[in-house]
Specification:
Chain B: Pfam families: Gemin7. Chain B: InterPro entries: SMN_gemin7 (IPR020338), SUZ-C (IPR024642). Chain B: This is Gem (nuclear organelle) associated protein 7. Chain B: One of its GO terms (cellular component) is SMN-Sm protein complex. Chain A: Keywords: mRNA processing, mRNA splicing, Repeat, WD repeat. The complex is a heterodimer of chains A (331) and B (142). With 331 residues, chain A is an all-beta fold. Chain A has a single domain, classed as YVTN repeat-like/Quinoprotein amine dehydrogenase (Methylamine Dehydrogenase, Chain H). Helix content of chain A is 2%, strand content 48%. Chain A has a 4-stranded antiparallel β-sheet with strand order 2-29-28-27, with no helix packed on it. A 4-stranded antiparallel β-sheet of chain A has the order 3-4-5-6, with no helix packed on it. In chain A, a hairpin with a 2-residue loop joins strand 20 and strand 21. The two termini of chain A are 27 Å apart. Chain B is α+β, with helices and mostly antiparallel strands. Chain B has a domain of 47 residues. Chain B is built from 2 helices and 7 strands; from the N terminus they run E-E-H-H-E-E-E-E-E. Chain B has a 5-stranded antiparallel β-sheet. In chain B, 7% of the residues are buried. Classes of the chains: A mainly beta (331), B alpha+beta (142). At the A-B interface, strand 1, strand 2, strand 5, strand 6 and strand 30 of A face strand 1, strand 2 and helix 1 of B. Strand 1 of chain A pairs parallel with strand 1 of chain B, so a sheet runs across the interface.
């Protein structure tokens, strides 16, 4: 008997959620940070969606947010022309890095020693977090606002996607362009998977997979609607995508077949990411919510509870469920 | 027939009264035992930690006493756009994000009761003076 996906809705934001990121797996589980136009990025427990805290300090919409692997530090990029680094345990602001325009993207190196930023001033900056008073290293070249800048290849290279319809691969030391990808339209999102060096890029209705070192294309898949974000499962068997039609799509990575689509959000989906253990994926939407979705629907994990088949066919099956039987759980 | 996957409960939402990061959570206690991240490098000398705790308590008490002493005193806030406003200080919230004041004298009139938010205040330069004996010159934020 097929089980129907029950997404878990995380409320709290009052404006569209535009970015989200997971930490690595820590002794305390894994964590999730969400960037929101309400200016108040939030930290949540990754497997349950429980709110842990709100990073207060930005004076404008927060466009990008990230956590380091250990979830001890957070970084955010905002429309107030600053990127901020936070202590992700206490919620305290640690550093404010002034920029000359809206900052859109932030990314830590694996050892959390450096922060990469990119935004509307078209410049990629590298900050040494051990010497925050020093001027950042600047990398110029993009001719339009930068949407995303990510460390790759063991933090020796940088991938950047901009509104100039290019994705550039830079060498960190020489700050020169090593390779370039050009598209007919702006890239809407980019995800880098270090294990296997895969780059996931979305543009229009397309989800494209590239080798992150060579920028050779692996494959492309077209979705039924314009896609804003996609994420590849850690085991590389599935990928998920979401966009304009408010739905989440799940595809088989090997066969490119669309497996499932899920309704739930009340607005376009702006970001979607798999958790580090691949058991769930989180989506952020224009509707101001984050939703958590199970990869294996019906499995006991986090707040989801597996119900055994015998219990389902019992005459008193309505007493088994912990929540009232309702077609849609709204939070 | 498709059955919905059941859930134990819904994810917990934000606390409307604070910014979270519960200092009693296992992660917080393990990583910030003395609430000062720098001091955790000094090791687990319980005497030092005890002294530190006492100093922290003294500072907290002093801060709270300052807030109490400021109640009903005339204060001046330096806001954005070179605006300075005077008011009678009432109270602060727990995160020192909002101040409750009375008789707020603004460029467009006197507000009987008001809440001054942290993001609207440029600087916490509060000059507390006795309303019956104001100083002739107030310090500036230059």
């Amino acid at each position: 008997m097929a089980m129907r996906q029950t997404p878990l809705t995380c409320s709290g934001h009052t404006r569209p959620v535009v970015d989200l990121a997971f930490s690595g797996i820590t002794p305390y589980g894994y964590f999730l940070i969400s960037a929101c136009k309400d200016g108040k990025p939030m930290l949540r427990q990754g497997d349950t969606g429980d709110w842990i805290g709100t990073f207060l300090g930005h004076k404008g919409a927060v466009w990008g947010a990230t956590l380091n692997n250990e979830a001890t530090k957070a970084a955010t990029a905002a429309a107030d022309f600053t990127a901020k680094v936070w202590d992700a345990v206490t919620g305290d602001e640690v550093l404010t890095l002034a920029h000359k325009h809206i900052v859109k993207s932030v990314n830590f190196t694996q050892d959390s020693s450096c922060l990469l930023t990119g935004g509307n001033d078209k410049i990629i900056r590298i900050y040494d977090l051990n010497k925050p008073e020093e001027e950042p290293q600047e990398i110029t070249g993009h001719t339009s606002a930068i949407k995303k800048a990510l460390w790759c290849n063991n933090d020796t290279q940088i991938l950047s996607a901009a509104d100039d319809k290019t994705v550039l691969l830079w060498d960190r030391n020489s700050t020169e362009v090593v390779k370039q990808l050009s598209f007919d339209m702006s890239v809407s999102s980019m995800e880098y998977i270090p294990d296997g060096e895969v780059l996931v890029i979305t543009y229009g209705k397309t989800i494209a997979f590239y080798n992150a070192l060579s920028l050779d294309m692996i494959k492309t898949v077209d979705a039924p609607a314009s896609i804003h974000s996609a994420s590849l499962h850690p085991d590389k068997d599935f990928f998920v995508a979401g966009g304009d039609d408010f739905k989440l799509y799940k595809f088989d990575y090997g066969t490119k077949e669309e497996l499932e689509s899920y309704k739930g959000h009340f607005g376009p989906v702006h970001c979607v990411r798999f958790s580090p253990d691949g058991e769930l994926y989180a989506s952020g939407s224009e509707d101001g919510t984050l939703r958590l979705w199970q990869t294996a629907v019906g499995k006991t994990y986090g707040l989801w509870k597996c119900v055994l088949p015998e219990e389902l066919v019992s005459e008193n099956s309505d007493t088994i469920y912990c929540t009232p039987a309702a077609p849609e759980i709204k939070a | 027939m498709n059955t919905l996957v059941s859930v134990l409960r819904l994810p917990r939402g934000p606390d409307p009264n604070g910014r979270g990061f519960d200092p009693n959570s296992p992660r917080f206690i393990a990583m910030c035992p003395t609430t000062i991240s720098a001091s955790s490098e000094t090791g687990t000398d319980s005497v030092e930690i005890g002294e530190e705790q006492r100093a922290r308590s003294a500072l907290r008490e002093s801060f709270l006493r300052t807030l109490i002493a400021m109640t009903n005193k005339q204060v001046q806030f330096h806001m954005y756009e070179r605006v300075k406003v005077e008011a009678k200080f009432g109270a602060s919230d727990i995160d020192v994000l909002n101040f409750q004041v009375s008789e707020l004298q603004t460029p467009i009139g006197v507000q009987k009761e008001a809440l001054l938010r942290a993001k609207h205040r440029k600087m916490l330069l509060m000059t507390v003076y006795d309303a019956d004996d104001p100083p002739t010159e107030l310090p500036t934020d230059d």
